[in-house]
Specification:
Elements: H1 3-18, H2 25-35, H3 37-52, E1 63-69, E2 78-87, H4 94-157, H5 163-198, H6 229-250, E3 255-263, E4 283-291, H7 297-365, H8 371-405
Antiparallel strand pairs: 1-2, 2-3, 3-4
Amino acid sequence: MSSKILVPLFLLSLAAHAQSGKLTIEQAVAEALKNNAGIKAAAYEVDMQKQLKKTSFDLPKTNISLLYGQYNSYSKNDNNITISQAIPFTALGSQGALNRSVVASSEMKKAESENELVYQVKQTYYQLAFEQARRDLLFQQDSIYAGFLKSASLRYKTGESNLLEQTTAEAQRNEVRNQLQQNERNIIVLRTQLKTLLNSSELPEISETSLNELPFQESIDTTVLASNPALAFTRQQVEVAKAQKKVENAKFAPDLLVGYFNQTLIDVVNTENGAVATSADRFSGFQVGLAIPLWFAPHQGRAKAAAFNQQAAQSNYKNFQITLKGLWEQAVQQFLKNKSSLEYYKTSAIPNADLILKQSQIAFVNGEVGYAEYLLGVRSAISLKEGSLQTLNDYNQSIIYLEFLSGNK
């Protein structure tokens, strides 16, 4: 297919998509949080842990036993029914504390997943806005070089210029059209990526028609990191490890045993009145006791392992704090660098680029400069515009990253 009809076809495709609904960034984030399979899985994990919270007072199965036969006298049909129950010491509080801690951990893990998803959606959304803005700039370049090619072809036919000028003009326009085709693929890739994040059945369109500077009101102080969901989750893992250690230590304590029995004592004589017990007479009582662990090695091993696990969780938390602080400081410097560069483009580079482009075209049309000087001016102006657009994208992406690190969804 000729490159001359690729761009119009692309424009028709864009026009067709424009007729459907377009997503704002707020709508994209809300749709992702609602539909993303990873977030649903995290929510199910929370529900599961909440159900497991009911196991805090978890008793072993109640033991019901029957003793029948000749166990008390020559009578062969005595019977004894005994009901007994063991109560582990862990059921008296430590297991419940662990379960509550695990529920909190699963909720923080879900918040971490949501923060990560929001970051990916914002990153992709505004990268797509950048590619669309770059497409507009490429269209502007294509229009400039189309005019240059038309002028160069006419000048060559009339003998006012040589073949080199016409060939250079054609090469410049073909290069822009190649960049337009690459830009089209980039847009499709990003829309596909956004579609995956939203768990959508169709390629989404975004409402951003141009790339705008994102507002940023957050403090750049490291205190904002306290609300980072990943940091909160890592900190909660320390609490989970502490609770697990308490559970393991509680297993050293004896289990409580309680029971009740009801039985016959056939042919036993009542010493007070001489009455003889029959099968119709029932005798009952209760029993209490302790189940004492005699073999401590397994309990000691699990308790020591839980202690090491707690230390590991504390070390992971401290390491994550240090790492997160380092990432924040690097991100702040990147943000300040992009902010300074963007200010330069807004106040100096872009006004100069517009002036250079305008004056180059005027001078070329009036024959004041040759095509070499004209191309040099055009390329210089376009390079400044491309640099400005890339810097604006870098600036926006640095803000999105800072918001991610601070947990600002």
